[in-house]
Specification:
Layout lengths: L4 E4 L4 E5 L3 E2 L2 H18 L4 E4 L5 E2 L4 H13 L4 E4 L3 H9 L14 E3 L2 H10 L5
Parallel strand pairs: 2-4, 3-5, 4-6, 6-7
Antiparallel strand pairs: 1-2
Helix pairs in contact: 1-2
Amino acid sequence: MSEPLTHLTCPVLVLQFAVPQVKGDDLADEVREQCLALYHKAQALNVVLDFTGVTYLSSAGFRPLLSLQRTVRQRGGRLVLCHLDPKVEDIFSTVRLISTVGSSRATFEVQPDVPAAITSLYRGAEPG
């Protein structure tokens, strides 16, 4: 199987999916293992997860994201999602993993793109 993620390492670890659909237990497990391995290897505090090109995320696809989020928070960092396709963003909103305007703090912070996500980390912006 080809690698489902590509990555760029800098003071903030930026991970980008290399597959358009994140579905199925096998792929979800592979994504979780890769995310955690890259996060630990980079010794980063914060993570930006770039969804450019991702058009579908199944319920199994949430498991690696939640696992990475838990690990990042345990280290005192933040995980920010960006470039969410409208359909994928709708899935996150429906299950209340991202906040909509005026709603309470959600599990994941969302920014429109990688530069905005990194800027929000350095500004210390709250999820919203």
